[in-house]
Design a protein that fits this description.
Blueprint: E1 5-11, E2 17-24, H1 34-40, H2 54-61, H3 64-69, H4 75-78, H5 85-88, H6 102-105, H7 110-113, E3 116-120, E4 127-130, E5 136-138, E6 151-153, H8 157-160, H9 166-169, E7 171-173, E8 179-182, H10 194-198, E9 201-203, E10 214-216, E11 234-240, E12 245-251, E13 264-273, E14 276-279, E15 283-291, E16 294-295, E17 303-307, E18 315-320, E19 329-337, H11 353-356, E20 358-367
Parallel strand pairs: 5-6
Antiparallel strand pairs: 1-2, 3-4, 7-8, 9-10, 11-12, 12-18, 13-14, 13-15, 13-19, 15-16, 15-17, 19-20
Length: 369
C-alpha cells in the first residue's frame, strides 16, 4: 500500500502550537479494516464537516466569526486534520473551509482518533493531544500482531477507560462562560464509558489481518444514525391510576437525553380503544439557551432560558387525564428533532429533510389488563 500523509497543525485550547503531525487518509485503512471502514462511512465522525453536515454548516454560516474574520474555529473538533488548522483557529491569514482541500473534507479521521495520546482539560473546552509517532496507533486489542503499515499498543489509559472521546465531547463554553453543550460538566467521565454505549461490540472481524469474532462498532450510534442501538438505555413504563395514567421515561445513560442546544425531544402518547385513537399533546423535553429570557444562537447566549431535558439517570413521569379500560392499547413513542421546529427557518433549514425529521428513539405499545 502506498501511504500518503497530510500535514496538520494541532492546537491546544489557547491556540498555541504544540505539534506538527501527519495523518494517513481514511482510504488507506480500508484494505485491512474493510468492515470497520464500511461502518465508519455512515458515522458523523466521517461526516462532521460543513460539506457533509447541513446542520453544522447552517450554524457556521450564521456565526459572526465566519462573517467578520473568515475563521472556522469549529475545525478543532470538526476537521482536526486540516492542513491550515492554525489559520482556521485564528492565527495569521483567513482559514475558510475549502471543498477542494482533502484535509477539509476528511472529517474526524481514523488516524486522528487512534493517535490521541492524552486529553488536555480546559475550562472552556478540552483538547486532544496527538502522538508524534505518525505510524503508531492506540487501541484496546492486546497482543497485537505486527503490521507493515503501522504499530499498535493498548496501554493508553484513555482508550482503556473509554475517555478518549472527551477531548471533543466533554463541554464547550462560549465567551459568556455559558456551557453551551456539555456531556458531563464536572468531567467525571471515569464513572462512565463513552465507548461501551457508542461503540458496542458487534459481530465481525476487526481486520482481515487478525481474525476476531467481535469488534467495536465504528458507526458511532448517536442522534444522527443507528439510534436503535441506543434504545436499550431508555426505559418506558405505563402506570395506571384512578381517573388517569402515567408514562415514565427512564434515562439510563450517564448524560442528559440530548446534549446539543438545537435538539428537541417529544414524548408522543395515544390511546387506542374500539378502533378509535385519541392522541394527547406531545410532552416536550428541551434545553433552551439565550439572553434576556429569549432564545439566541450559542455565541450570543449567556444563560439557560429553559431546561426540561431529562437528565442523566433520571426517571421522568408524565401524567395524562384519562381513565384506562381493560383492552386499551397505549402507544408510547419517545423521539426527537435534530433542530427545534421553531428554529428551522432561522437557520435556513426549513426544507432540509434531515433537520425536519422526527427520529424515533424508543417505541412501545402497552395493552391494559
Amino acid at each position: 500500500m502506498k501511504v500518503k500523509y497530510l500535514l496538520v497543525i494541532l492546537l491546544t485550547l489557547s491556540s498555541t502550537l504544540i505539534a506538527n503531525a501527519k495523518f494517513a487518509l481514511d482510504s488507506e485503512c480500508k484494505s485491512c479494516h474493510p468492515l470497520i471502514s464500511q461502518e465508519y462511512e455512515s458515522a458523523m465522525h466521517k461526516n462532521s464537516t460543513i460539506f457533509k453536515d447541513p446542520i453544522h454548516k447552517a450554524v457556521w454560516d450564521r456565526h459572526p466569526v465566519n462573517k467578520k474574520k473568515g475563521k472556522y474555529k469549529c475545525a478543532k473538533c470538526h476537521t482536526p486534520t486540516a492542513s491550515n488548522l492554525k489559520e482556521m483557529m485564528g492565527k495569521g491569514t483567513k482559514g475558510i473551509p475549502d471543498a477542494s482541500n482533502p484535509t477539509h473534507t476528511e472529517g474526524i479521521s481514523c488516524a486522528f482518533c487512534h493517535r490521541i495520546e492524552s486529553i488536555k482539560h480546559g475550562s472552556m473546552s478540552n483538547s486532544n493531544i496527538v502522538s508524534k509517532k505518525e505510524k503508531h496507533y492506540f487501541g484496546t486489542i492486546k497482543n497485537v500482531l505486527e503490521s507493515e503499515f503501522h504499530t499498535s499498543s493498548s496501554d493508553n489509559k484513555n482508550f482503556q477507560n473509554g475517555n478518549v472521546c472527551i477531548g471533543c465531547h466533554s463541554h464547550k463554553k462560549n465567551k459568556a462562560q455559558l456551557n453551551v453543550c456539555s456531556t458531563n460538566i464536572s468531567n467525571e467521565m471515569d464513572r462512565a464509558n463513552c465507548v461501551s454505549c457508542h461503540m458496542p461490540k458487534v459481530d465481525g472481524s476487526v481486520s482481515n489481518v487478525r481474525e476476531t469474532k467481535k469488534h467495536s462498532f465504528h458507526g458511532f450510534p448517536g442522534a444522527h444514525t443507528h439510534q436503535d442501538m441506543l434504545s436499550k438505555y431508555i426505559g418506558l413504563e405505563l402506570l395506571k391510576n384512578i381517573g388517569s395514567f402515567e408514562v415514565a421515561v427512564n434515562n439510563k445513560s450517564s448524560h442528559a437525553l440530548l446534549l446539543h442546544p438545537l435538539r428537541l425531544s417529544q414524548l408522543r402518547v395515544s390511546v387506542e380503544r374500539d378502533s378509535k385513537v385519541e392522541k394527547f399533546k406531545p410532552e416536550v423535553f428541551v434545553r433552551v439557551i439565550g439572553k434576556d429570557g429569549k432564545p439566541t444562537p450559542p455565541w450570543v447566549a449567556n444563560s439557560v432560558v429553559k431546561d426540561t431535558m431529562i437528565k442523566a439517570n433520571e426517571k421522568r413521569v408524565v401524567r395524562y387525564k384519562k381513565q384506562l379500560q381493560k383492552g386499551d392499547k397505549v402507544h408510547v413513542t419517545l423521539g426527537y428533532f435534530l433542530v427545534k421546529p421553531k428554529a428551522l427557518k432561522k437557520f435556513g433549514l426549513e426544507n432540509d429533510a434531515v433537520a425536519k425529521k422526527f427520529y424515533v428513539l424508543k417505541k412501545e405499545t402497552f395493552i391494559v389488563k
